[in-house]
Every structure is written in structure tokens, then in C-alpha cells.
Amino acid sequence: MENDDTEYPVRYIPASKVLQAKVPFLDVSPNIALKKANNVLEEMAKDYVNWVQEDIKRLESTYQDLCEDPKSKDAITALYRVSYAMKGQGGTFGYDLVTFILNNLCRYLEEREEFNEGQLELIELHIESVRMVITHELTGKGGEMGKQVIMGLKQMINKKG
Amino acid sequence: MSAKMLDLSNINILIIDENANMRIIVKQILRALDAHTTKEASGGAEAFTTLKTFNADIILTTWMMSPINGVEFTKMLRTSSDSPNPMVPVIMLSGHTEARYISEARDSGVTEFMAIPISPKSLYLRIAEVVLRPRQFVQTNDFFGPDRHRHDNEKYRGELRRQEDKEKQQDEMELTDAHNSLLKPD
Questions:
Q1: What's the domain range around B75?
Q2: Minimal CA separation from A78 to chain B, in Å
Q3: Which among A42, B48, B88, B128 is least buried, having the fewest CB atoms inside 10 angstroms?
């Protein structure tokens, strides 16, 4: 279907059905494959606490770079990128608090172009909180300890944010 | 209606993410869903090269990449004169879920938007969306990409949206009735 207009020409190209032709339905429920996929993630989650240590080290090193130059755009971006990647993975493996804390940190980094001493301390607390969540394997909401971690972070945000 | 699984074993999927761990996660989920033919790229430039020899049916890309981010990559894919596959469906995985980001992704030519953290169910549903409800393409002076508005059964969708809007604003994330029924237990 084409719809020409002299001033604002708009051309419509019909949706392709090629993909549909390549993807037939199987006579099984998707729930079987989804359960299998969830099991795969559960297995991966057992290793997550180990390989996330490398990410935490990257968080710390990019944070140190920012401390050395609190106005550095590159340092802010580097810290943001590590935080962003980790926040996506945490929730996938059941570590919702990692996602929550680092989402908060990403927002905090987005809003500023430089950081004073108090604000750097607040960033450090975010990183410490992530470490605590991983060390104590606080999955989901993290129970009582999870509550304390988040409460401590909120208090610091109110004080230094 | 009995729920049926889509057979993903014959499709090629390109996964683009600068984070290797994230690529592994996505690849493992796809494997469990029987989508075995995947390729990986760590950025937009590498993805362009890969697409010259790998006929991707679906691209899964993250937003956050350097030097070319997912939105810029999608724009290039849709409009560059040497684009290997300008009409391939692109599903964007992003931690940026505010309406302005979703809108920016749509304006770049992204087909579907998916919030991270991801789950097998959310990934499967997004793939089902591009397979079962492909979007027509639109070409204007300043845009080439999937239609940002759906036109099938418009009246019904409109009524549905108005109801849903009362409960949630992110109707971009809505699931179709067909997909919901797919996931009902037998």
C-alpha cells in the first residue's frame, strides 16, 4: 500500500510474513521450554556470586578513577557503564537488590557532572551495599538484612544527596 | 485454546551487547528455548560486519554500548546505504525504561522494546511479538523503520488501551491477548 502526499510523502511497506513462515507452532506448551530456561538461569545463578566479583572490582576501580578526578566525564561514564551492566544482570539471577541499588546509582550519576566529597562517599556506599548483598547472598528483597542495607542507603542519600 | 510453543529452531538471532556476561545470559536462555543459531557482537561496528555474512532473522541489542550505542546502531541499520539488512526486526534490551527512552528507541527504528533485567518469559514474549505481529514499515522524509503505531484491529486495541491506561501508563510494554493465551498452562 502506498500513500503519496506531495508535501509529506509517506510510503508504507506491508509487514513481512517471512519470519512467520520460518517459525511454526509446535504441539507442546511453551511452559516446558520456559521451565528449562529458568532452570538454566538457576544453574548460572550459582556461579553468579563468583563471577560478579570481577564486576565489583571494576565498580571499585572506576570509582577510584572518579575520586581522582571528580569532574572527569570519562570516569563518570565508565562507572555508569559498569553499574548499568550489573543492574541488568542482578535481577535476572534473583538479586533484585543489586538491580535496585545500581539503578539508583545510575540515576544519581546521570544527574550530575561533578561530585563533591560527600557525594563521592554516597557513591562508595552504593558500592559497599552491592558488595554486602552479594557477600551475604541476599536474593529477592533480602529479608531483614536487605531492609537494613536499603534503609542505610536511604538515610545517607537524605543526608548527603 | 491450547497453548503452543513457537518453534524457534530455524531462525538466526544476532545478540549485540558490549558486556560478555549479558551475551552469555541471553544466549543460554535462547538455547533453552531451542533457538540455537545465534551469533554475538560486542558493538555496532562488529554487528554490521557480522550481518554481511549472517542472515539474522531477529537482532537483540542493548542500548548501552560504545562507541555506537544501540539506538545509533538501529538508525544506521535502518537508513545506511550499505546496511546489510534494513528491515530485520530489532528488539532493544534496555535498563532505560522511562517513556522518553522508549520513544527515542521507537524513533530510531526499534521494533520492540524490552526492559532489563530479562527473564525467559519476557524474552520469549518479545520474540513471539515480532513473529506473530510483524509491523509494517514506514518511510518518510526523516524516518525509516517499523510502524510506531499498530493498525490491526485498531478499534479493539483502542478500547483496550483506554482501559489499561487507567491501571498502567506503560502501554508500550503490553502483552497481546494472543501471547497471554500462549502462556496459559494446557
A1: 12-182
A2: 11
A3: A42
* Structural domain includes residue B124: yes
CA angle B176, A26, B185 (to 5 degrees): 55
Cβ of A24 and B7 within 8 Å? Answer: yes
Digit-coded pLDDT (tens) for A12-38: 999 999 999 999 999 999 999 999 999
Domain ranges of chain A: 31-160
Q: Is residue B135 part of a domain?
A: yes
Q: How far apart are CA B186 and CA A90, in angstroms?
A: 32
pLDDT digits (tens, 9 = 90+) for B56-105: 999 999 998 988 999 999 999 999 999 999 999 999 999 888 899 999 99
The domain at A31-160 falls in which architecture?
Up-down Bundle (1.20)
B160 touches A at CB < 8 Å: no
Question: Hey, how many other C-beta atoms are within 10 angstroms of the C-beta on A77?
Answer: 13
For residue A60, count other CB atoms closer than 10 A to its CB.
16
Contacts of B153 (CB under 8 A, 6+ apart): none
